[in-house]
Design brief:
Length: 493
């Protein structure tokens, strides 16, 4: 049996005190958990109604959670928190009556109350509600952290996100911005006549990316299914079906590692446009990101957590993958070197690479570990090795590369895009090469769809969580996900 620490003991004692208050309320036939509350104004709306003529000040009705409680004998100042922020309330015993004031004094930080009264401005200039009447609408039995240092463990922050949102304004603002980012993206794509769709999360075969899936068993059909690792193949089936411009914002699941930039469950935006290509996707993603940045932040500059500034306005740099690799290795003949020569150069550069890997994988280790982290300003890295993606068109004049780009900003990939492969014969060959001996995971139904004809198209995937990281200055992907995937907490005994 584990011993409770002092914090656990203190919390238990406070819980017992609050539970006693709750029982006393119920004995006095006071309902501490109301079914409804008449909230006519948010904190921001109430403040906006203030005017200097306090004798004719409007009556406001606000509601929220008590986060500040200062008793001063026959009067008290309280601050409540609602979805738009905080507003101060002023209670006077002579104003609300002795009985009501005595009940008010027994409230706790964390309780939800409703209050109404006129507005006035304090000597310090803070717009405040002079409470004429109030009601307790929900009792909090557990105390809030006294300050953020009381919830400093990052795992606890993610596990108890509700506490994070209550006490951390920066976190609340980040998730407000996330919501607005997604909203602006939708408006932008709608304005370009794209249609939003929803496709299945359970797949009998997984594909569209090189990733390990999560598997589950479908009892009714008595067969295994996979949680999707990409949105791509179903969206391209819709191109075959005649929907020329489609997009989906959906959850993706990859049974792989966790890091500052990776999560097993994340949100992806994928967009497909018929009669376009990877260059069309360049214009689309640049315009979209610039629009989002301007509407959400009011500017096109973004400051990273380490003090660097990124300029998202104007044109963005474009550079071939091979050029960057040659520059990083200092070897113009890199791509004709043997695997042993590549591994030796990697060792000299301090780049760890598995000797069992293929040459293109060793090269990609150089890119991911030495090049990508230094691509701070927006950069389209074009014409990647064909082995990295079996779903894109080969580059005309250089069949060792494909017509794709990876958009890198702030030292990480934000969005890959392709000129989509629509030749079913070439697609089957590329799937076969990638699958090797594991041919059962080739999506033959997708090949069947292509054989019915798919128009030329450009496609792009944008990691929503990484985009939110970029635009909000977050340092960890989990800081952008409301409820990130965590190992189950140990049960206390």
């Amino acid at each position: 049996m584990s011993k409770p620490n002092s914090e656990d003991t203190q919390t238990h004692d406070l819980y017992a005190v609050r539970l006693g208050k709750l029982n006393a309320m119920r004995e006095s036939e006071c309902d501490p958990f109301r079914a409804n509350c008449e909230q006519e104004h948010t904190s921001a709306q109430a403040r906006a109604l203030y005017n200097e003529d306090e004798e004719n000040s409007p009556i406001v009705k606000v509601a929220g959670r008590i986060v500040v409680f200062r008793l001063m004998g026959k009067a008290a100042f309280v601050k409540i928190l609602d979805r738009e922020g905080k507003i101060q309330l002023y209670f006077r015993r002579d104003e609300i009556g002795v009985e009501a004031y005595n009940k008010f004094r027994k409230l706790d930080i964390g309780d939800f109350i409703g209050a109404e009264g006129p507005l006035f401005k304090t000597k310090t200039g803070e717009i405040t509600v002079r409470v004429a009447a109030y009601s307790l609408v929900a009792k909090a039995l557990r105390p809030l952290p006294e300050k953020w240092h009381g919830l400093s463990d990052s795992e606890q922050i993610y596990r108890q996100r509700y506490l994070d949102l209550i006490v951390n304004e920066e976190s609340r603002e980040r998730f407000r911005k996330r919501s607005k980012i997604v909203s602006v993206i939708r408006r932008f794509l709608d304005s370009r006549e794209f249609m939003e769709v929803e496709t299945s999360m359970l797949h009998s075969e997984f594909g569209g990316a090189a990733a390990k899936p999560f598997s589950t068993h479908f009892n009714a059909l008595n067969c295994d299914f996979y949680l999707r690792i990409a949105l791509e193949l179903n969206l391209k089936r819709l191109l075959v079906g005649g929907f020329d411009r489609v997009y989906e914002i959906g959850r993706i699941f990859r049974n792989e590692g966790v890091s500052r930039k990776h999560s097993p469950e994340f949100t992806m935006l994928e967009i497909y446009q018929a009669y376009s290509d990877y260059r069309g996707m360049m214009e689309l993603v640049r315009s979209m990101v610039q629009t989002v940045c301007q509407e959400v932040l009011g500017k096109t500059e973004v400051e990273l957590y380490d003090g660097q500034t990124i300029e998202l306005g104007g044109q963005w740099r474009e550079v071939p993958y091979k050029e960057l690799v040659i520059e990083a290795t200092g070897d113009p003949e890199w791509f004709s070197r043997s695997k042993d020569e590549m591994l030796a150069r990697c060792a000299e550069m301090g780049v760890e690479s598995n000797p069992a890997q293929e040459k293109f994988e060793i090269t990609n280790d150089v890119f991911e570990k030495r090049i990508e982290p230094n691509l701070i300003q927006p950069t389209f890295v074009t014409h990647l090795p064909r082995e990295l993606c079996p779903l894109a068109k080969l580059t005309e004049g250089d069949e060792s590369t494909i017509d794709v780009f990876e958009l890198c900003i702030g030292g990480q990939e934000i969005a890959p895009a392709y000129s989509e492969q629509n030749d079913p014969i070439a697609q089957r060959d590329m799937f076969g090469s990638q699958a090797g001996d594991d041919q059962q995971n080739v999506d033959h139904d997708f090949i069947l769809a292509l054989e019915h004809g798919m128009p030329p198209a450009g496609g792009i995937g944008v990691g929503i969580d990484r985009l939110v990281m970029l635009l909000t200055g977050a340092t960890n992907l989990r800081d952008t996900i409301l409820f990130p995937t965590l190992k189950p907490a140990e049960k206390k005994t």
